[in-house]
Description:
2 copies of one chain form a homodimer. Chain A is α/β, with parallel strands linked by helices. Chain A has 3 domains: 2-59, 434 Repressor (Amino-terminal Domain) (Orthogonal Bundle); 68-175 and 313-338, 3-Layer(aba) Sandwich (Rossmann fold), CATH 3.40.50.2300; 176-310, Rossmann fold (3-Layer(aba) Sandwich), CATH 3.40.50. In chain A, 41% of the residues lie in helices and 14% in strands. Chain A contains 12 helices and 11 strands. The first copy, chain A, has helices at 17-24, 28-35, 43-56, 62-69, 85-101, 122-128, 143-151, 176-189, 204-220, 237-250, 267-279, 313-328; strands at 74-80, 108-114, 134-138, 156-159, 170-174, 195-198, 230-231, 261-264, 289-294, 307-310, 336-338. In chain A, the strands form 2 sheets. Chain A has a 6-stranded parallel beta sheet with strand order 2-1-3-4-5-11, with helices on one face. In chain A, strands 7-6-8-9-10 form a 5-stranded parallel beta sheet, sandwiched between helices. In chain A, helix 5 links the parallel strand 1 (74-80) and strand 2. Residues 1-10 of chain A have low confidence and may be disordered. At the A-B interface, helix 4, helix 5, strand 2, helix 6 and helix 10 of A face helix 4, helix 5, strand 2, helix 6 and helix 10 of B. Chain A binds a DNA duplex through residues 16-18, 26-30, 32-33, 35-36, 38-42, 45, 60-70.
Amino acid sequence: MEKDSKQKKDGGKQPTISDIAKLAGVSAATVSYVINDKKGVSDEVRARVRAVMARVGYSQNLRAKGLKTRHSYTIHAVIRKEAAPACKTFYFGVIACMAERLSPGSYSIVPVFQSDDESDTTLPDLIRNGDTDGIIAFQGLAPRTARALERGNFPCVVVNPGFEAEPGAVSVQIDFEELSYRAAAYLVSLGHKDVAFVGMRSLPFFFNATKRGFRRAMRENALPVRKEWIRGEATCSEGAAKAMRNILAAGGVSGCGHPTAVFCAQDNFAISAMSAARAAGYRVPEDISFIGLDDVPEAKYIEPPLATIPISPQILADEAIDRLFAMMAGAPAESVTIPSMEVAPRASVTRRE
Amino acid sequence: MEKDSKQKKDGGKQPTISDIAKLAGVSAATVSYVINDKKGVSDEVRARVRAVMARVGYSQNLRAKGLKTRHSYTIHAVIRKEAAPACKTFYFGVIACMAERLSPGSYSIVPVFQSDDESDTTLPDLIRNGDTDGIIAFQGLAPRTARALERGNFPCVVVNPGFEAEPGAVSVQIDFEELSYRAAAYLVSLGHKDVAFVGMRSLPFFFNATKRGFRRAMRENALPVRKEWIRGEATCSEGAAKAMRNILAAGGVSGCGHPTAVFCAQDNFAISAMSAARAAGYRVPEDISFIGLDDVPEAKYIEPPLATIPISPQILADEAIDRLFAMMAGAPAESVTIPSMEVAPRASVTRRE
DNA sequence: TGACTTTGCTTAATCGTTTAAGTATACTCG
DNA sequence: CGAGTATACTTAAACGATTAAGCAAAGTCA
């Protein structure tokens, strides 16, 4: 029961680099070289030091290290206070993925909420003080911060799915046009000819991209689209329901008087639109199929489960972190657009003969 | 344009405590005493040092400070990986409030995601290494971490709305029974006599608390409740819709064959239940009123806007942070249950004569 | 072989703070 | 008045790492 007492020497404190040095019979400098994989240490000593570190459970004091190296071992994830709640939720998912990826004991990621207001100097201050090693900026940057970054050309990656890429910045984007194209093409491939689109006009860049993708899929298959079936009023779930009612009220293209499938630019909208369609007496998917975009956790669990084009926060996180670390290492980094994922086929979509 | 050149002496680096000392004509120690509001410095010198700091825009190097004081100036917010997505979203909101409250340049808050798996030693490691000054644990702690905390009786506040309070821990709770009581009592006060309840059986503690509150309100007003009108199948929005359909299928208590009002233990459920009721041909709020619990951002924007009992992430965050800082300062702290807020009356509820 | 380079290690200064200990000056009081 | 105590400051040693510079021993080469 008391056999861990040997770890308690030195008053139970964590071992330092000098403790390791003493135990391994070398100098502190040598231990440091081993830790940082520098050359100039013989394999034998290297192994001995490593063994000691493993035995006593050494781990670095990042404050001491950072004091000397002028690093903070912290990266900041900036979210605009003004961002839509739904966006924020998604961003947090991405941050969660980043946090899981960052090996514990090395870098940590701290979320900061910045207002678009010019007077918010949080980020410039962090940079000036050397309190941050890199920045992940969701949905763009406030002008003042952007300027602060440029001046020192500071490692920063902009993650802005659904927003226009920032001209000078390294950004991680999603090709919503392509995603939408795939979603619509998937419906068409199952025999659907009367397809409607429910989008979100309140985010113009996103709206246009998704609409373009949808239109392209229809055009390439020589399928007509009723103007009234391309909707933009989905800004919240009730907006999506309204869009659906408007679609149903507009009448049909080629016969049956209603679309046989609907592509919604967001899962949550699809869920609402589905409800609205049912409220109007249609069966899902027998009368109308629904496909969404995002793959929110709920999509699998609703009845019927919602087919969707998944957007992976994990991939977004990985791409952003890779680029940020490259920049932090002084390497150049380029913007990237995440390729579209495969459709997740679920029961909300059925074949149409 | 170039007049900030005087700030660039010393190679553009941030001024240190010794720079301040030199400029103010005192020793570094004195500056430190001023910064930390220690006594033993004359008012005159104190003022002079402060003036210099303000002039050159001094800010502390927390790594150096922490190295000496053995603090990390970091608090960790722990979220279980296994938590329900809806819970996580709420927790993120609370973390956001905490982040905004923590004055920049002092403590920062970093989210960590821990699995319930015994093998996850992230937190014990952080504590052992002195990499964290305090912990906010959402929805309880994994057993291993709990043990690590107790051993050193480490500053930790458990934020677990909707879950049973941990016995030995300082926790911040929400009195869901009281909230539910208020919601139901509000409906009754407007003349509703036939009221149904939609809850979430999958979270037993939460389910029981909300159900108890609902029942108490009805009992105190001598109103009968149909057994079939107390539902627990709301685990997702579609579950809530099903609950609503079951309620409508069950028939009425006192005449009209359907409830005139429904209390849903979560806004999202209320939104779905509302849709389901409409799908079945009822008007909201004319035929059936709906009230939720939470005040999700969407509640205000849907049509009709959803009445609800708000839960303020801000208050939760403040209470938790207050307690954590008290504990970090060595003071004792006690668990607290946040009092219920007032009903947010919105158009989804109407008076019943 | 002797000069030069390489290898493998140590020494010691440094990063920006805090804080115990020291010192000079002024204040207090029997 | 002199001893003792405050007061206001400074000096210097830490905290735990990194890293330039130094130095011995071994390797290389004409």
